UniProtKB/TrEMBL annotation:
Entry's transmembrane regions: 12-36, 70-91, 103-122, 134-152, 240-259
SUPFAM superfamilies: MetI-like
Protein name in the entry: Spermidine/putrescine transport system permease protein
Keyword Membrane tagged: yes
Domain ABC transmembrane type-1 as annotated: residue spans: 68-256
Coiled-coil intervals: none
Organism for this UniProt entry: Aminobacter niigataensis
Topology of this chain in the membrane: Multi-pass membrane protein
Superkingdom in the source lineage: Bacteria
Stored CDD domains: TM_PBP2 (cd06261)
InterPro entries: Bact_Polyamine_Transport, MetI-like, MetI-like_sf
PANTHER family assigned to the protein according to its UniProt record, in alphabetical order: PUTRESCINE TRANSPORT SYSTEM PERMEASE PROTEIN POTI
Length: 271
């Protein structure tokens, strides 16, 4: 007798799944195609010809490199801040019991649940009220608000699956707090933190809405792309940059997926 798992899915379900995937990913494939087009002024389909000249043109554009460098710096620092704050919040919420714990957990994840424009307006109002000039650091603070949530969600789930008896045994054997964290807790939550950091970096790298309200005169790579679409100089260059952004965000997301999938076995789980 065949099990339910071995039975093939209905043909209608397969067609619906294929149609959904095509709807989601065909526009992305079009970006890749237009990065090689010979047409500079418009999006003509099919492309009149194919060329790789726009990759050299992109390489020679200093404004692209400046925007890319800013995006990488902002994403890296925002991720570092998120790793520290998100891990501490996750440890406090999952390992201890105190009044208002669930309310604090809700407040931590609220920034990613709110529409980006609300977060952006709130941050801009706060910076203006505090008379903080818009700069590189206002972008970092804006991005850190939602990056913390990503790290927190990954870390708190792993903390809750880690057996408390391991920590108690470490303390009973004479280890101090730092030794327990280094040799017991970190090996169990390490892949979750790495996955959360990668997701946070990807989210920060391609953020547009919050950056628009907190950037001032700076241009991250997504903001540069937005302005190029409004006032284009070389349309295919924008598509080349878009292709780079897709790859730069896809790789960390895939890595985070495999890390969290392979981290199902937790030391001491179930004890």
């Amino acid at each position: 007798m065949r099990s339910d798992r071995s039975q093939s899915a209905p043909r209608g379900l397969k067609i619906a799944a294929a149609a959904g995937l095509a709807f989601l990913h065909l526009p992305i494939l079009l970006i890749f195609v237009y990065a090689f087009t010979t047409e500079e002024k418009s999006y003509q389909w099919p492309p009149p010809g194919l060329t790789t000249q726009w990759f050299a043109a992109t390489w020679a554009r200093p404004d692209v490199w400046q925007a890319l460098g800013l995006s990488v710096q902002v994403a890296a620092i925002s991720t570092a801040i998120a790793l520290v704050l998100g891990t501490l919040c996750a440890a406090a919420v999952s390992q201890t019991r105190f009044f208002g714990r669930e309310a604090i957990s809700l407040l931590v994840i609220l920034p990613i649940a709110l529409p980006g424009i609300i977060t952006g307006i709130a941050l801009r109002s706060a910076f203006s009220l505090a008379e903080i000039p818009f700069s590189f650091w206002t972008i970092v603070l804006g991005h850190a608000t939602f990056c913390v949530v990503v790290v927190y969600n990954n870390a708190v789930a792993r903390f809750r699956r880690t057996s408390g008896s391991l920590i108690e045994a470490s303390m009973d054997l004479g280890a101090d707090g730092f030794q327990t964290f280094r040799h017991v807790i970190l090996p169990n939550i390490g892949t979750a933190l790495l996955a959360g950091g990668m997701l946070a970096f990807a989210l920060s790298f391609d953020e547009v809405i919050v950056t628009t309200f907190t950037a001032g005169q700076q241009q991250t790579l997504p903001i540069w792309m937005l302005e190029e679409l409004v006032r284009p100089r070389q349309r295919p260059v924008t598509n080349v940059v878009a292709m780079i952004v897709v790859l730069a965000t896809l790789l960390p997301i895939l890595a985070a997926y495999y890390l969290t999938r392979e981290g199902d076995q937790i030391a001491g789980a179930g004890k």
